[in-house]
Amino acid sequence: MNVDNAQAQMRKGVLEYCILSILSKNDAYATDIIKELKESKLIVVEGTLYPLLTRQKNAGLLSYRWEESQQGPPRKYYALTDAGKEFLRELHSSWNELVEAVHSINTRSSQKN
Amino acid sequence: MKKTIKINLSGLVFTLDEDAYQELKNYLDSINSRFRNMKEGNEIISDIESRIAEIFQSKVSDKKEVISIDDVNEVISIMGKPEDFYEDEEEDYDSSSKKTDYTRKENRKLYRDPENAILGGVAAGLAAYFGIETWIVRLLLVILTFPIQLILIVYIVLWIVLPKAVTSAQRLEMRGEKVTVSNIEKSVKEEYESVKENVKRVSQSKEFEKTKNVFGEILYVIGQIFLVILKIILVIIGISFVIAGIAAIMGITSFVFFRHAIFPIDSWTLFHGVPLTEFFHSFSTPGTFTLFSFAFFMAIAIPIVALIYGGIKLIFRFKANDKTVGLAGLVLWILSVICVVTITFYNGSATGTSGQTTESDYLTPFDSDTLMLYMQKDPGIENFRDDWFYNDNEEWHAISDADKTYGKIKIDIEFTDDRKYEILIQKGSYGRSKIMGAINAENIIYRYSQDDNKLYLDPYFSLNKNHIWNSPETEINIRVPKGKYIYLDETTKFFLDDIEGINAEASEDAAGKVLPLALDNKTY
Fold it and tell me: Do B40 and A55 touch (CB under 8 A)?
């Protein structure tokens, strides 16, 4: 068990949540999402994203539309569906619970020390 | 100067350096083998390709038209190698599997299995469904189709109605394995090789499909039909290999180990004039004989088994460790051949010199002045046929029964100054020395019988099978006293060898006549 691995595991866990969160602000295509995730250092390589997007879309959380692009092939713009919004709400609340739980454990254990 | 290659990526055309192309191809191959068998694989792949196209597009300008290997390496570092997002995948998949349908119950579904298919993959699908070996299902289908033609129709119907198991999930369902990521990974790895081939198709991308014209479609269909016909032909060839091989094995087994069982190999044209039975009987010791039989059997049977094996492989197209089996077979075969050759040569040296032994006997006196010579019509040998007396038949050479081997005799007639009819039985055989030859000849058994003036000769001499058969022969020499006669019955015709007063070429003509010829008007 090393630190890198543990960190990677944590990042993975929140990745899906973050994708939905990014899309809740505005519709985006893969490269936009990647840009934001990269800035937050949540992902290192782009290849990770595509399977996730496709799976979320197939699960009915996302929908997409094609938009022409000046710089390359047509882009897939993803948007949250109603189911996706509902899903995200649930994730929000469980995320908050998690953060609180972790926080309280951390403070308690630091008091003991 | 550098060679460049044009590619079509997500509908955009790019020009790549050759090394850049190789690198990109390898990368896409690895992506493909990673995702291809997933349910949403194709979509992921085309998304990734589309992203790569976008990056490439940003790299080219009026001044720089060609994508270099550096560009490709940059793309790879941006996108990441499949190994880099490999680990993430597994975790995500497992967590999402609870809410989605990625995990299914262990329900088997009947699919056609296109990857192990000969025709439609129905048998392979059935085999996967019932969890048995595919070749068993095929064998049953083939065998049962002969008495029950309905099976053919059922097969075709199944071919039409059953879906192909294309994706990994379907393939796992087909086998009833739990559809989990690690299982899919496992099957992805297993199929990596076959995926590699299909990558070619993917690299031509969907655009190729769209532009494929009707003519192309027709060619494709014709190609498919041709392929099916080819497969059927291969199966037929395979079946004939197997049948021929099994027949040959049965023949050789029956011959070597049971001698005259299932197939009358002695009468095969191939062996005419080569008295195999005699040959087999010519070994000095039973041990050598057994060893020779075994080696001889292996030397012939191994290629036949290889033939059957090849046939079965053609029919059922299974994978096997050919190298090990083949090598073992080859070594065994070479050893057998060496064994056969060595024993044959060794045995040959044992048959160097001929030796002889002669028994003579006076016939019991009788009143008539003419001896009537007949062949014993019923020599008491299994498989002996009367009509052999009336044609000069090669089959004479190859008579044997449970404990004896038989050889055809020769008859000589001489006229002497003696006053009695005399019969000389000259037995000859080969051996290491003249004496050994004579000793071998001693073992020859010959019988005749006399009834008044009628002398009945056995057409054969015989040798017990526990004795060595070294080209033995037996000549019956009948000495007729001066002033007496001998009548040769028609049955003696093909035994007559050396008749005094008659040319060697015409000796057979003496049959049915009274000798000496000067008195042939004499009647009886």
Answer: yes
Chain A contact present for B99, CB below 8 A: yes
Question: Model ipTM?
Answer: 0.82
Radius of gyration of chain B (CA): 41
- Burial classification of residue A37, based on how many CB atoms lie within 10 Å of its CB (0-12 exposed, 13-18 middle, 19 or more buried): buried
Residue of A15, A46, A58 with shortest CB distance to B40: A58
Picking from B46, B47, B96, B98 by the largest number of A CB atoms within 10 A of its own CB, the best residue to mutate is B47
The tokens describing B285, both together, are 């010791």
Q: Give the number of residues written for chain A.
A: 113
Of B57, B78, B80, the CB nearest to A72: B57
A32 touches chain B (CB under 8 A): no
Neighbours of B130 (CB within 10 A): 13
10 Å Cβ neighbour count for B227? Answer: 10
Partner residue facing B80 (CB), from A8, A45, A76:
A45
Q: What is the dihedral of CA B392, B397, B401, B406, to 10 degrees?
A: 100
Whether a cis peptide bond, with omega within 30° of 0, leads into A73 is no
Cβ proximity of B122 and B135 under 8 Å: no
B10: left (phi over 0), alpha (psi -120 to 50) or beta: left
Burial readout B64-97 (b: 16 or more C-beta within 10 A, e: otherwise): eeebbbebbeebbebbbebebbeebbeebbeebe
Cβ burial, residue B100 (10 Å; 0-12/13-18/19+): middle
Chain B residue nearest residue A13, CA to CA: B92
Separation of alpha carbons B5 and B59, rounded Å: 16
How many CB contacts within 8 angstroms connect chain A with chain B?
Answer: 96
Exposure string of B453-480, with b = 16+ CB inside 10 Å and e = fewer, is: bebbbbbbbbbebebbbbebbbbbbbbb
pLDDT tens-digit profile of B74-123?
888 888 877 766 444 444 443 333 333 333 334 567 778 877 777 778 88
Q: Do B48 and A47 touch (CB under 8 A)?
A: yes
Alpha carbon distance, N-terminus to C-terminus of chain A: 24
B423's tokens = 């019969």
DSSP tag of B351: T
Angle at B511 between CA B506 and CA B514, to 5 degrees: 105
* Alpha-carbon span B480 to B198, nearest angstrom: 93
* SS3 (DSSP) at B369: coil
Is the pTM higher than 0.80? The answer reads no
C-alpha distance from A112 to closest chain B C-alpha (Å): 34
Q: Directed axis angle between helix B192-203 and helix B181-190, to 10°?
A: 80
Instruction: Give the model confidence (pLDDT) of B124-155 as tens digits.
Output: 888 877 777 778 888 888 877 776 666 777 77
Structure tokens belonging to residue B355: 């030796």
